[in-house]
């Protein structure tokens, strides 16, 4: 049984880190509550995810979330809504957490810190409500998101979820199986405080000396090349395609081969006690025996 998180005093450092991130990105981040702005956020998320004939999140659902004390926020560049982020309060391993459900930034506004500004606003919101942690899932094949979540934000990968939502047919997933990494963002650790204060995150450090092999790399044909984890390996690299979203459109069979190879690579590394801890500047995952456990979940519904 869990108890509701207690209200805590404001976290001034988290609030100022959020403000600085928004200033750097040139946006204002604010909670959304009115149905017209929530409808605009729903449209933006549909646009980002390329949904056709259905909503990634309906305006009514966002209204319900917002009205019942959950997190719905938008980033404005001037008067224009350019990003949205939605989460709801839930539980993970007996702890009350904020689970972040969906994040999207308009394609012409990406790569200049809007996504990070939204996440730092969400972090401050959660800390103010007594949460220590925000959880969310992301597709581990999307290289940019891996860097964003693990290295820019300092979230920790804690579970590998096999085909979590079943097959997804929006413009980003294009029929692929929906394996996801579950990340836990511990909001007030020294590492997270440091990455939140530094606009580069911590993805630019040297490779750990123990990295002894690449478990998944590229073949000459652009396909995945999977290698057995060698005995004694305690740190390794796993590569991904540079742009899986366009590969799914161009060559769905090759994209599926990457999905299966990446699943096998993470499963074999997890069996050796390794988990993804960050990404390299080239975009590979760095896996190491480190911190909390990393588990693979297969549910009957996903097999
Ligand atoms: C993911 C998304 C929200 C990021 O928004 P954004 O405004 O571009 O985010 P930011 O500018 O703050 O930073 C993200 C970018 O910086 C990179 N990045 C920033 N700091 C980094 C670091 N220290 N190490 C590695 N990468 C870093 C990320 O790789 C990403 O770049 P890329 O995707 O262009 O390769 C946006 O790309 C998007 O809407 N994507 C489609 C929807 C989606 O995938 N949502 C799920 C997110 S988990």
Question: What is the helical fraction, as a range of percent?
Answer: 25-40%
Q: What top-tier CATH class of the largest domain fits best?
A: Alpha Beta
Low-confidence stretches: none
Number of strands: 13
CATH superfamily of the largest domain: Gcn5-related N-acetyltransferase (GNAT)
Specify the CATH architecture of the largest domain: 3-Layer(aba) Sandwich
Net shape: globular
Biggest β-sheet: strands ordered side by side in the sheet: 1-2-3-4-5-7-6-13
Number of domains: 2
What's the SSE pattern? HEHHEEEHEHEEHEEEHHEEE
Main sheet characteristics = 8 strands, mixed
Which properties best describe this structure?
five-stranded mixed sheet; alpha+beta; 303 residues; eight-stranded mixed sheet; 32% helix; binds coenzyme A; Aminopeptidase; globular; 2 domains
Structure characterization notes:
The protein is α+β, with helices and mostly antiparallel strands and 303 residues long. It folds into two domains: 12-197, 3-Layer(aba) Sandwich (Aminopeptidase), CATH 3.40.630.30; 213-296, no CATH class. The chain has eight helices and 13 strands. It has helices at 12-25, 35-49, 59-67, 114-128, 143-152, 190-197, 244-250, 252-271, and strands at residues 28-31, 71-77, 80-92, 95-105, 133-138, 156-161, 180-186, 213-218, 224-226, 235-238, 275-279, 285-288, 295-297. It is globular and about 55 Å long. The relative contact order is 0.13. The model has no long low-confidence stretch (mean pLDDT 92). It binds coenzyme A. Residues 48, 103-105, 110-116, 138, 142, 144-145, 147-149, 151-152, 200-201, 203, 279 line the site of coenzyme A. The site of coenzyme A (COA) has 24 residues, from strand 4, helix 4 and helix 5.
